[in-house]
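Ticket #4471: structure export looks truncated?
Reporter: QA, pipeline team
Priority: medium

Steps to reproduce: submit the single chain below to the structure queue and open the exported record.
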Amino acid sequence: MRRKFGCALLCLFLIGVAFAGYGESADKKYKIGLSNSYMGNDWRQIMIKTATVVAGKPPYDEKVDFSVVNCENTPEAQTATIDVMIEQGYDAILIDASSTTALTPVINRAIAAGIVCVTFDSVADHPDVYIAQTNLADLSKAWANFLVAQLKPGAKIAVDTGLPGMTNGNIVYETAMKIFKDAGINVVAEFAGEWADGVGQQKISSVLAANPDLDGLFSQVYGETILAAFTQAGRDLIPCTAYDTNAGMLAALDNNMNIIIGNNAPGLSAIALSVAVRVLDGEKVDKLTEITPGLFSNVAIDVGFPVTKIVEGVNAFRDLPGALDWPVLPADFEPSVTIEEIANYQN
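Actual output as written to the record:
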C-alpha cells in the first residue's frame, strides 16, 4: 500500500510540475530588443520613444519585454551589440542598420539561433529578415517632381545625398537623380547633410557661397535648416525639399516657403515591433511592410502623390518641440499614440 501511495504522490507531483511549467510558458513574454546605430538627430530619439510607448500599451504590454540597445554608427559596433543580444537569448531583434550589407554575418548568426530579425528605416539587405519601411522611392519621386514642375530644363540645383553609407539616403538620391537627368535639370553641387540640422546648415551655406545662381535645392534636411542657411547668406528662398520637423513646418508656414516636406514616420520602430510579435505568434507575415510617406506643402503643385496643406494646429504646432516629427505612425496603426505621449521624447 505504501508503495502504491508513494507512486501516486510521485505522479501528482510530476503533473503539478508539468502544469506549473505550462503556466510559466503561457505567461512568458517575448524578449524583444531594438538595435539602434545612430543618435545624431532627433528623429532617432522620437523613433525610440514611439516604440517604447507602443510597447507599454495593450496588447504589447502583456506580451513583450522590450529594450533598446544604442551603439556607435559603425557596422563593427552594431555587430558587437547584436552578438551580445544573441547570447542573451532575445526572441526578436529590431534593427535600424548602420550598413546595408555589413551586418549580414551577425544577422546570419541571429537567425541560426532562432531569433526573428526585423530591419526598419535604414534597412539591411538580407533575404531572411522582415522589413518595415517608408516607400522612400515614392517620397523622392514626389520631391523631384515638385522641383521639376517649377524649373526649366537647364536649371541648376544642389542635391543632398543624406548620410553616407546609409540605405535611405541612397534610395532618395538615386531615385531623384534619374528624374533630374530625364528632365534636363543640371546638378551643379552635391553635399551630405547627414539628416542633421547643424551639419546641413553648414553644407547648404557652402553650396550657396559657391553657387550664386542656384535655382533649386533637393535637400534631405529640414525646413528650418534651409531657412537659416538662406537667411544667413542673405539669399532669397528658392524651391526646395525637406524632411518633416515641427520647426520646419512652422518655418514654411510663416515664411511662405516654396517647399515640399516629406514624413518618414518615426513609428517604423513600432511597426517593426508589431511585425516581430505577429511572427513570434505564428502568423504568416509578408517580408515587406511598406507605408506611404506623408507629404506637406504650401504650394499647390501636382507631384503625382497626395499632398496635405500645412495648417497650424493640425500638423504645425507653436507649443511643441521644434524637432518633433508628426505624425509618428499611420492613422490606422493600433494601438494609437497621442502627440502628448510623444512630444517629450527626450525624457
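Status: closed, not a bug. The export was complete when the record was re-opened. Leaving a note from the reviewer for reference: The chain has eleven helices and 13 strands.
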